[in-house]
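Example with several molecule types.
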Amino acid sequence: MTSDVQVTQAPALEMRGITKRYPGVLANAGISLDVRPGEIHALLGENGAGKTTLMNILYGLARPDAGEILVDGTPVEITSPHDAIAHRISMVHQHFMLVPVLSVSDNILLGEEPMAGPIFLDRARAHRRIRELGKTFGWEIDPDQRVESLSVGWQQRVEILKALYRNARILVLDEPTAVLTPQETKEIFAVLRRLRAEGYAIIFISHKLHEVLEIADRITVIRRGKVVGSRTPAATNEEDLAEMMVGREVNLTADRGTSHPGEVILRVEQVRVKDDRRSEVVQGVDLEVRSGEILGIAGVAGNGQDELVEAIVGLRRPSSGRIELAGRDVTHAGPRQRHRLGVGFVPADRHRFGLVLSFPLTDNFILTDYYEPPYARGIIRNEAAIDARARRGIRDYDVRTPSATVTTGTLSGGNQQKLIVAREFDGEQRLLVLDQPTRGLDVGSIEFIHGQTIAKRDAGTAILLVSAELDEVLELSDRIAVIYRGQIVAVRDGRTADKNEIGILMATGGSGASGSPSSPAA
Amino acid sequence: MTTERPPSQGRRLVALPATVWAAVALPFISIVLALLVGSIVILASEVIVPGHPFDVTLPVTAYAALFEGAFGGLDPIVNTIRAATPLVLAGLAVGLAFKAGLFNIGAQGQFLLGALGSVTVGVALNQASPFIAIPAALLAGMLAGAAWGFIPGFLKAISGAHEVVTTIMLNYVAVSVIAWAVSGPLDQPGSPSPITAQVGNAALPVIIGRNGHLGVLVALAAVLAVGWLLFRTTRGFEIRTVGANPDAARYAGMQPRLIVVLTMSLAGVLAGLAGATVVLGVTHYMMASFGTTVGFDSIAVALLGRSSPVGIVFAAILFGAMRAGAPLMQIQTGSLIPAELVDVLQATILLFLAAHEVIRHILKLRGVKAGLETTDTIARTYGRESV
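Resulting structure tokens for the full complex:
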């Protein structure tokens, strides 16, 4: 690996020439990567670049076809996560691997139970160690607290404690900031810096360029299974890294231009919505979205956004309140009636609502219009029109697919999302509801979807954007509403909004301080 | 820019699209493996039953006889068709429900009600013109089956009651309804055991060989109708969408509850038609205990045919052929191998189909998964609370 970083110490971990071939895909083509004690090494790459495969190999979940792994200079065989842990390698996954109903200590002990004799757990000893470990970071951890009552940021700390409890010296963090607020991100960065100072070797996987530049000592970019290059943060910048990741120049910030808001398209008045467990998670929300404007809703996941969106598109009935679309009361209208009034919806969970993965692309292109001409004459499907519709969408929205008739589940996440966008953005929409429109997508797809969103706004569509990515909300919105525990706690101008202020509003609702371990996951 | 290609589905013996492979290869492999297991059963019965010289070639003899009994001439072929006809119709009843994500174990009950409906009208019109009696009796079978399918569909739509539970219950109720009707209102006075009168002019005419009745055309028409409904109409698109992803169906503005009721009713029509063809084409009357397992066999047929109308035809012919050929196999093996061997074969085929993961593992068919929606439906619907 070419590196402009001075070698100061022997690597704690070295992966040499790792090659992994899946049928038809070379996931890793001779990747070499090392990390030294007391170093944070960021691994940067788009979805499908081979990051996950590489880490699965390191963690014993996949076997490489070629290449070797060295720990402290000695070649090791890692055939299972158990081996990885034995070599003091630990992984903090993007989706936490915690059991919500178990206590902090039970989660940490799981799989590594300290025994007092042949039958009984030595809980007292374990609790002592967990407390001590926590104290080294200044955390007051209650080992008996249930994990589900912890905030996301604290759950992540439990994951890190779990790794440290197992005496890990090499930590792999997979997109650790994806679910965190800006404040929580700062806090976790402080933790990582501290671990670095204590000599831990850390691999930090991310696609957020500014974070990588902030925290890493070295940055390695991979694309299509190959290392594109390594940089120090001082010797690079966001544009350079993005270009390395994507392989071409990328426009990182969408140019939102000026908006020209018109008449009110969506009016939400005192809407209350219950979730599946019948607790009221939207508690009297008022909103207005005008034509030609993007209203962004910022909020930590689970503060009622999903239910609010479902109420607006007609998938969930509000328990009270009123929803108006272009002056018409649609509070009790179903999804189809709203669709016919010009509502497009890009759902957060595209596999659940947006697509039928076992269907060909053609059927997914007409999922919401299948009953209307030209796609149907009476009850007879018009295959020629359906096919033409799919071809047009694939062309106009750059959906990468071998053909229009392959199963939709075989497409990459980015291309699946482009299919949904192609379907929902098509035609004269009055209102577009975008729920996490770029979650999990690569830089290129995000750029494309952001561009399309602004184009729709400029064409006069009212756009409601919900995103857990604060950067996305800040970048696109003309106005920003912050949702906290089912209520809109503040509305700010999108161009002048202060990121820190919004972050604090998201985390606290505008009162009280963050950082208490018992703050609910909301 | 280069085109991205979706990741390939895994190493295969033959390079076929995964869906084609799963549609053809897995059932075929299951059949071959079942025949191998059957051979072991045959050889084992030689060892167990004393007084026979051990004959290693007996499995070949038995299978040859089975084949000859099913396809060796016009009469055997007609027998195969006669056995396959209700299996096609009832198989469609199960397969159509699978497409909507429903596991219709009630084909047996719908079959029985269909038989009862057609015999009731058939007996009443047994002196009328066949042009009136036959359509009327078939229609009565369809309606009675539809009613028996509507009930579980309706219960599921309004209360979420799982169709597996309700259809099993209704199978028992159907048996009791038949027993009551045949020994009560429909009983032919003067007969020693409860039995209905003959259907007379409502009987389906023989169109091939000695006893190949019109039912085969009814079944083929149903295959075309179901295929057309599923793949050429918006209604079929709704059925398939509800089956593949009920949340996406709601998002698309469909009404999954209505689709569930409609699909179960249509399934009842098809299974009821199966019952009608047996009564009007084969038995021409009905007894209080109507000994048939068509409704249950049809589940196996739908699974083997992977719910596709064409696949169901092939699966029904296979099962029909085994039924038709079994007696000759028993005769030619000197009753050493009983006709019930075909039950073993059918069950084993199903076992291998259900355990397709095992086959894939043994034969190193990694990743062949796409399209196995039917067996997945069974696993999935048990866990789901409601539509």
